[in-house]
Specification:
Four Helix Bundle (Hemerythrin (Met), subunit A); two-stranded antiparallel sheet; 2 strands; elongated
Length: 185
């Protein structure tokens, strides 16, 4: 199995999964943070299950990660300078500052989805340009040791699936979990 082609296909597939997951969240909840973990009848499991971020915030996080960490790191295999970021342990304050700017501009789901689509197309273009001889070369240092281009792309796929899963929990279980919590009082 050709891991480069497989991961290229997974970038396309997980983009579709993420977009589908976002579309499953009711529009009125896109910016609402899950209240489940703060409910008086809640236990730690609800906070862990739903997290603290709204669906829009989850999507923004994926877009930000790919813009600031994944794509610039991938481009290093095409000869661009290393972006000087740690894609495994990114500095959360940088993202928080970008999130505040995003909120000041106003939530624009179509624009954010378009940024995501453009990022994925650029990642695929970059991936296709990485020579086969460089694909497994551990060329980028992280807080967890050196990584290859194959690792960077696989991490991007995993990251997208992780947050798509969170979006689907929001879409599928929000109301059911809230009704159950309300009935426990």
């Amino acid at each position: 199995m050709d891991s480069k082609q497989t991961l290229r296909d997974r970038l396309e597939e997980t983009a579709r999964i993420l977009e589908w997951a976002v579309a499953q969240v009711p529009a009125q909840r896109l910016l609402q943070e899950p209240p489940h973990g703060r409910h008086p009848q809640s236990d730690k499991g609800y906070k862990t299950f739903f997290g603290d971020w709204s669906a829009y915030r989850l999507l923004f996080h994926v877009v930000f990660y790919e813009e600031a960490y994944a794509l610039p790191t991938m481009k290093h295999w095409l000869g661009e300078p290393h972006p000087g970021v740690d894609l495994i342990n990114p500095d959360p304050s940088v993202e928080e500052a970008a999130w505040r700017v995003e909120l000041e501009r106003g939530a624009d789901l179509p624009a954010l989805l378009e940024r995501f689509r453009a990022l994925r197309q650029e990642q695929i273009r970059v991936l296709e340009g990485i020579p086969a001889t460089e694909w497994f070369r551990e060329k980028v240092d992280t807080s967890r040791g050196p990584v290859s281009a194959a690792f960077v792309v696989a991490k991007t796929v995993q990251h997208t699936l992780d947050h798509s899963n969170a979006l689907m929990r929001n879409a599928l279980y929000w109301d059911r979990a809230w009704e159950w919590l309300e009935g426990q009082g």
